[in-house]
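Reading group handout, session on sequence-to-structure problems. Before we discuss, look at one worked example. The prompt was deliberately terse, the way you'd type it at a terminal:

> structure TatD family hydrolase

The input record follows.
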Amino acid sequence: MFVDSHCHLDFPGLAENLSQIFDRMSHNRVGHALCVSVNMPDWPNLIQLVEHHAQLWASVGVHPDYEDTEEPTVDDLVRKSQHPRVVAIGETGLDYYRLTGDLEWQRDRFRTHIRAAREADLPLIIHTRSSAEDTLKIMREENAHEVGGVMHCFTENWDVAQAAMEMGFYISFSGIVTFKNAVSLQEVARKISLDKMLIETDSPFLAPVPYRGKTNDPSLVIHVAEKIAELRGTSLKQIEDVTTQNFFNLFNKIN
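And the output record:
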């Protein structure tokens, strides 16, 4: 069984096609998927979705790209995290690629999420883009190692991967690892210890080769696993087994 450790099944393009997606997931042996929160106004719909499907789980958090939206407090996040289907805090982090100017609000929001994760004793789902130095700095300052988590849709270099793993974080690979120009990321996928690896789709975005440019969904996570197996010269079964076990080790509220 494969697990998609990060998707957005409540997004347009996926939410209205769930029955077909579930059929494709079953065909490709994708048994579970973690539906990741990006803002507070849409969170009730996300929870309603996972409540009706046993193979789905949820997080609670506000993505760093959402500038003009309701800011969560530590208490908000902790309270929502008590829902039995919520297994993580996030998606949170920093993104200096899409937004510019004074981004102190992003850093403040990130600190709020780490503090909530520590209080709730749940792992973090961290997004970082063009901001690795500040992301790692805040993780250290806020003692993110106390709960650990995952660096989702990882696109950074080996040094960043090592620094995150030293704080107890997993590294998650998306369809980007299948792209021809992702040479440095493929090198990270070759070098990383298997016990720190997760796979994801980040669907509906970043469909892996041979579906690049099309709408992504959790059934396609198998192609991420296939590429990693190829890069490492190992079996698909090994990648399937270790990434699934890693998922349940990290998001242990499911157990």
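Points for discussion. First: The chain has a mean pLDDT of 97. Second: Residues 77 and 116 are 6 Å apart (CA to CA).
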